[in-house]
Structures are given as C-alpha cells and as structure tokens.
Amino acid sequence: MKIIVAIKQVPVRDSQLRIDASGRWIQEEDLSFEINEPDAYALEEALQLKEKHGGEVVALCLGPARATQTIREALAKGADRAIHIEEENTGALDTFGVASLLSSAIQGEKPDLILTGLQSDDLGYGQTGVVMAEILGLPHSTIIMQVEKENESIRVKRELENGWFQHIDIPLPAVLAIQSGISKLRYATLMGIKKAKLKEMKKVTVGELGAPPPATVLIERAYAPQKSKRTQILEGDAKAVAAKLVEKLKFEVRVI
Amino acid sequence: MSGILVVMEQQGGQWHRMSWEALAAGIELGKQSGQPVLAAVPGSEIAALANEAATKAVAKVHAVEHPLLKDYTPDGFTAALEQLIRQHAPTVVLFPHTYQVRDYAPKLATRFGQSLLSDVIHIRADGGTPVFVRQLFQGKLNADFRPSGNGPFFASVQAGAFRADSLEAGSAQVETFTPQLDAAQIRTKPQAPFREAARAVDLTAAEIIVSVGRGIKDKENIHIVEALAKALNGELAASRPICDNGWLPMERQVGSSGQTVSPKVYMAIGISGAIQHLVGMKGSKIIVAINKDANAPIFEVADYGIVGDLFEIVPALVEEVKKAKG
Ligand SMILES: Cc1cc2nc3c(=O)[nH]c(=O)nc-3n(C[C@H](O)[C@H](O)[C@H](O)COP(=O)(O)OP(=O)(O)OC[C@H]3O[C@@H](n4cnc5c(N)ncnc54)[C@H](O)[C@@H]3O)c2cc1C
After folding, report:
1. How crowded is residue A11: how many other Cβ atoms within 10 Å of its Cβ?
2. What value of ipTM does the predicted structure carry?
3. What CATH number does the domain located at B4-185 have?
4. pTM of the model
5. In a domain, A90, yes or no
6. Alpha carbon of A114 to ligand 1 centroid (Å)
7. What are the average pLDDT values for consecutive 10-residue runs of chain A, which has 256 residues?
8. Is residue A230, in this structure, part of any structural domain at all?
9. Does domain B203-325 have CATH number 3.30.470.30?
10. Alpha helices (runs of H) in B120-239, residue ranges in sequence order
C-alpha cells in the first residue's frame, strides 16, 4: 500500500499565546513547535498499515522552513520520504487553498490511501482531508478509530457521538481523517534518526505548484476571549485554597 | 441570491438536538440581516420532522426526501444538498457542528469553491456581510472571520453556542425537494451503528464527579485524584486522552464521544476545557476547575477556580475533606 500522510506543525500544547502586531495571529518568535497531535496518530496508522501490508509511507507537509524539523521526525519514525511545500505566509491561505496545494503536490503519486489528522490544534478547522478527497475525486471518511484492509477496499471504524461507532466499507483509493488515540504512538529510534538524514525530502514552492484558488475566509482579528462567567478564584497556598474550597462545598453547595 | 439556509440533522426520524441551535443561529442572523430563513431536512420519510420544523419562525422548510438518504453517506448528502443550494441560491448555509456535518459539509462547501467556517460560536451581520467568530487553539483564543466574495458562505455552529429554547413559533410552508440520486454515486457503505460494550459505570447518576485530565501526566499518578473521588464519595471520570491511553476505561470518559453528565459538583482537574469535553459537563450545577494555567478555557465555565499545581492542591484537598467529614 502506498500511503500519503498529511502532517502539520503547530505550537506545542500548553504554549502561552500572545497576539502579534498584525492582530491576526500569534507571536511565534519564542514558541516551540511540534507535530499536530492527530497527525501524529495518522502517521502512526500509516506506519502500522505499511508494516502489515508492505508499501511506502510518504509524509506531506505544507508549512514554513521550521516545519522541516517535524518532517525529519516523521522520517525518523519510519516514513520513507517526504514532500514539503515550503511557504512562510500560510496565513494567506484558507482550507480550500491549503487542500488544493496539498493535492497538487501529490499529483502523479497515485496513493492507495491518504491519511490526515482529524483537525489541527491551532486553527481547528477539521476539514483538510475531506476537502482533499473532494478535489481528488476520492471517497473519504472521518473520525476514524480503526482501519482494516480487505482486498481492494478498507473497512474503517468511525466514531459517532455519545460512545457509538459504525463500520464503513470504502473502496480504495480513499482519504481518511484519523482520530487521536487510534493506537499507541511510537518514538523514533536512534537508528531511525540516523537513517532519516539520508531520506528524500522534496521541497516545492507554491509558485511551482501554481496559485491556489483565492481565499474567501481569512482571520480578520484574533483576540483573547472575553470571560462571560464570574468564576470565584480561590487564592492562597495549597492548604489555604483546599480549606476554602471544602468550606464552599460544605456550606454553600452542601455536598459534604 | 438571498436567504439563509439552515440544514437540520436527523437520524432515523429522531432530531439531533443541535439542529434547533443551528436554526436559532439562522433566525438570529436572518433578523439582523433582513433575510428570510429557510430550513432543510435531508433524509428519507421525514415529512413529520419537516412539519415540526415548519412550526418555527422560518419562511419555508425543504423536506429533502430520497430513499438513498435513509442512511447517511457523505456522497449522498453532498449531492442532494448541492442540488438544493444551486436551485435556491442562499447567501449563507448553516449547519450544527455535529460529527456528521464534520464529515460532509467541507466537501459540500468545496463544490461551491468555498471553505466551511466550522465550529462557529457567534455570528453578527456587520455592514451587509456576516462576521463569524470561531475559536483557535482549542478555545484559548477567538477570531473574527469576514468572508469575501459573493458566497454562498458555509458555517457550522458549535454545540451550546446558540439557544434553542428561545425559538419563536411560526407556520411555514413545507416543500418536498426530490434530489436526483443514483446508488452508483454513493461509494461508501455504512454499517449499523453499535456500542462497544455495556456501560458498567453510569456517571449520569453521580452527585459528585471528580474528573482527571492530561495534567496528571502519568498513569501512576491517577491514584492522587482517585483518592479525592473516594474522600468525596464521588465517581472518578476523565477527559479523552486519559481513556485513549488506557489509564482509565472508556466508560469513564466525559464529553461529546463519551458520557454527558450534570452532577451537583463536577471537579475538572488538569483538564484544559476543549469544547468536546465541555459539552459533556457544562450542565453541572457547580463546576470546580484546578489548573496551573490561568488562561485555560475550563475557567470559562467554572464557578470556583484554583490556579495552581494539582500535585500540591489535590492531596491538600483530600486532607481537608477528611477533616470536614470528621
Ligand atoms: C471529534 C472529537 C471528539 C472528542 N471527544 C472528546 C470527549 O468525548 N471527551 C474529551 O474529554 N475530549 C474529547 N476530544 C478531545 C478534546 O478536543 C481535547 O483534546 C481533550 O479534551 C483534552 O484533554 P485534557 O484537557 O485532559 O488535555 P489537555 O488539553 O492537554 O489539557 C491538560 C491541562 O492540564 C493542565 N495542567 C498540566 N499540568 C498541570 C498541573 N501540574 N497542575 C494543574 N494543571 C495542570 C494544563 O494547563 C492543561 O490545561 C474530542 C476531540 C475530537 C476532535
């Protein structure tokens, strides 16, 4: 099976975020970056499918030069090669634009499967995979918790609301958006990290791929949400706040 | 082009309750922008539901009827709604941000050269164009989006962002729309929905829930929070990553994929407050949040907050609870 995995680099979880001078995005200078968590699971699923059925895993990433680090890590974990659409100004693209570029970059690749994470931790649109499927004319499914190959098709387990699931049969080639937690993530081995240095990382630019469709939905302004609820913040050292909370629970909420 | 089309969701003749919230968003935007609101109900044998939607303050309800829409498929729903939208040319198409909508609405928007604005929390008509507000970084920031061009603009609204209980009554006409669909167009074959296993734990009956998130860092630390649940005589619950990691069984997961609870007291410990978690617990009477990040979105729904390290605070709480209980 030839599998393409779209991965994205995002600020590490628990980053302290500040709005930048443009007022449309965050200050990125002093942040650290990592692979978007659902994408890490998509990569893991791709590697496991390759281990079971043979084939090739190609990491695909649109992002600035700093994303090279995340792509290298994907190669170190076991992806065979990578395609990096290097673009600094990703803020000028909307989902349709991003998915169009990702789709053009894999023209001629003829994958059996394209995997993406379910959504990104930064923008959180949750649709890159679905839009790629539409552009490429492929069937798709999302919120996937299991993938089983059966001849020319796959059977996936899709998560529904409130603890329900559903199996879906999909002919190949297809696009799947993978849910976090589908399996356990592997770490890169020392050997893997060494090997990654020799693997192919093809760089392409937006100019080479051709301009994507003009963006119709972009961020006009980013800001800290206004608090609408009055939260009583209890202050003091651990013992003091614990005593205060227990008092509330005992005398106001009356559950103790 | 005119009008706001709200696509409502049903499954097997049962409404998805978020459909009414999407309708409320549509009616609000309709008022602000002076545009008529149309509702669409895709499915098979959905006349009764379409009639029910017609009792709300909408201009018209389209019953999008076809036997191939009985079971949801992205191909079937996209094709059917594309035809309806081409025929009626609304300026805005709204959906509830359900798992189903996540699956096909981006595909539908692509057919019109548009990007779906997903998980919108607020909409305002601002000088003719609607401005959509959605969250970034799992609720840590908000952003305004003002779409450009002629539309139609596609947006899905977040669970709980619009109030369904304030829907005005009306009496609209129901029109049946029969899309052209062919079984060969539908490439995916969905099987019947199932549940993993009978739930041994019914969190919905608990008066006190002590819920643990990724702030706990390691499986070996779960006992710290478990001790608090015990001391309070409450149930232990968790956010999704804890169950994904197998640190607690999935039946203790709270949120959109897990259980929805509304206990007297819900304590969120080391939980950031992503929307998929919030929808499962924000109906709790009293919410207590313990988090080291003062900007964590969980504080938005908390009645009492403690900003600090759970590894210091939770053991102190256990002591104090024991003392109070005597
Ligand atoms: C389709 C879909 C369905 C989902 N369904 C669910 C669901 O049903 N339930 C659910 O919970 N999630 C669900 N999620 C996942 C959800 O989006 C979040 O990723 C998840 O809720 C995050 O869990 P968390 O808050 O425990 O972890 P994180 O977001 O990582 O938050 C950890 C928090 O712990 C705090 N912390 C760290 N260390 C300490 C310390 N020492 N002391 C105090 N605080 C500390 C941090 O400040 C942070 O706020 C779903 C996502 C999707 C896309």
Report:
1. 18
2. 0.96
3. 3.40.50.620
4. 0.96
5. yes
6. 27
7. 98 94 95 98 98 98 98 98 97 97 97 98 97 98 97 96 95 98 96 97 97 95 89 96 97 93
8. no
9. no
10. 222-232
